[in-house]
Amino acid sequence: MAQFLFRQTCMNLNKINRKYTLQQDIYDVVLEGVSSRLMGFDNGIISLEVRLGKKSKRSLGIISYELAHSWKRNIPELSQALGCKLYFMDGVNDPNTAFLYQSGISPAFLAKKGILFYPSQLN
Hints:
four-stranded mixed sheet; disordered N terminus
């Protein structure tokens, strides 16, 4: 059984979010209307908050998979992650969601998804 040790590093979430926004999130917003933000990285699990800005033709499962792998691939601090939890907010049908999101307040979530990067980790 493999043991994974994670270095306890002090992550500046604002700096990481800004870096991802400039590298990748701009394309996600323009092409798909999906915006994401890092909420935390604990015990090898990435926590992302995802805001859906317009009606997407893709399922939440596909969006989850692509965002989780995008964060892991583009941010070196997250490269050793085992999985990702995604919390989806609806920015289409609820106009208050956008205001709360920009104010730094997390409104109620539309859906929650989880991704394991290495399926062999399951017992």
